[in-house]
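This follows on from our talk about sequence and fold. I would like you to pick a protein and set down its sequence and fold. Go ahead and set the record down below:
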Amino acid sequence: MYRITDGNGNSLRVRFKHDMPNGRTYCILDEDKPIGLRVVGQAKCHPGDMYCKNTGRKVALAKALRVAAFPRTVRGIVWNGYFAKRGKTN
């Protein structure tokens, strides 16, 4: 989990949940407000492929950001926070 603050002072929490037996990774985006945005992105691994947490996190985050329809600047801030936390692997 990590938190991102955009230029407008809005705070966003990014979390990941891994369901390895079913080959799924979930990304949950939450705004730190009482009634804030909550978006879930899901990555599903093909049964013939090897499960990879790094790939699952990236695909799930990309899907969550697409659903949330954030402006490009906010998406960039979220991705920069992800790479600062996890490093540029895969």
User: Anything to note?
Assistant: Strands lie at 2-5, 11-19, 24-31, 38-44. The mean pLDDT is 89. The longest helix spans residues 53-68. Residues 2-86 form a domain with the Double Stranded RNA Binding Domain fold (CATH 3.30.160).
